[in-house]
Amino acid sequence: MSEQDDREQTKARRHRERQQRLKEKVDAKIAAATEERGVLLVLTGNGKGKSTAGFGTVARAVGHGKRAAVVQFIKGAWECGERNLLEPAGVPFFVMRTGFTWETQNKEQDIAAAEQTWADAERLLADPAIDLVLLDELTYMLSYHYLDLERVLSALKHRPAHQHVVITGRACHRALIELADTVSEVQPVKHAFEAGIKAQPGFDY
Amino acid sequence: MSEQDDREQTKARRHRERQQRLKEKVDAKIAAATEERGVLLVLTGNGKGKSTAGFGTVARAVGHGKRAAVVQFIKGAWECGERNLLEPAGVPFFVMRTGFTWETQNKEQDIAAAEQTWADAERLLADPAIDLVLLDELTYMLSYHYLDLERVLSALKHRPAHQHVVITGRACHRALIELADTVSEVQPVKHAFEAGIKAQPGFDY
Lengths: 205, 205
What we know:
Two copies of one chain form a homodimer.
Chain A: H1 3-32, E1 40-44, H2 50-63, E2 68-72, H3 81-86, E3 93-95, H4 101-104, H5 107-125, E4 132-136, H6 139-143, H7 149-157, E5 164-168, H8 174-179, E6 182-190
Parallel strand pairs in A: 1-5, 1-6, 2-3, 2-4, 4-5
């Protein structure tokens, strides 16, 4: 065997050993996690992908025959592509009856709309037939003091044990982060916007 | 008018003014971004939500009547919930014929499988009828040197001008980050795993 073949074989063996150690680590972690219960997932931060990941989770749940529901707290006048696919697949949508909050400039009206929509969320969070609830852009309702924090926390804490919840939005309140099981912070590294590329249907909304 | 009413009114006025300034900023940004073209979006980092955001983008595109396709470079034995929903909705799936890379421990076999799957990706990236291509978990193929970086960059650079591409996976290669229009880094704040909660169908896969 040439010296080069020998080096190649050693390299290949080391690669297999590294993969084996990685596999053992992953297997041990999987074996240690045995509890099955509803997960509270928070997707926060200023980067693109939070709501999209929320809707992706809904698509995944529906694909597994689970019952999912969507509550949208901030929604522009734009048509929502996900809704066109998911609503006919049996996912009910509850949408706050006001545009982007910074377009209404009427705090009382926003608060009333937020509370009405939260009442829809509360019904879903009390319904054991619902496997997954997406609370899209909920975080702003707390940053703007449109919803009472204790009321929100209480509904989340008392939901059915198997029910998953996904909360999206920037600057998530610390109390929600603490309550959550999984939290991802989506940070913007760069955005097409800055390069002059406009938001496009079927990609950005 | 009482002093308290006065204070409340001032507070409400200031709120409206803040919202107005925010709206003006957003409007100015939107007006400045006028170019319409395919966006290369990279979702990287170690947090939960990258692939889910990728599939959410596919769901959004399909909801708008766009043609999307999915290429999955790493895929366990688990059933994929998104596929059950998206494939019947007309989204073709191309899945690399090997399990999680750290379960195969055969570098030559992994490289052959990666190259075969990349050939599928190349066909999609050359097809102007496809509006969106999701390259799920592509980043690992570059970190493990399973695919040639120049070959990957070339197909991305020469794709149809209107075609959007989403790339997901940890530790994305710097050259892809540079080429991308939008990059989000999904960072884990905490994960249910660590609290002993197991991965559950319809939520984690």
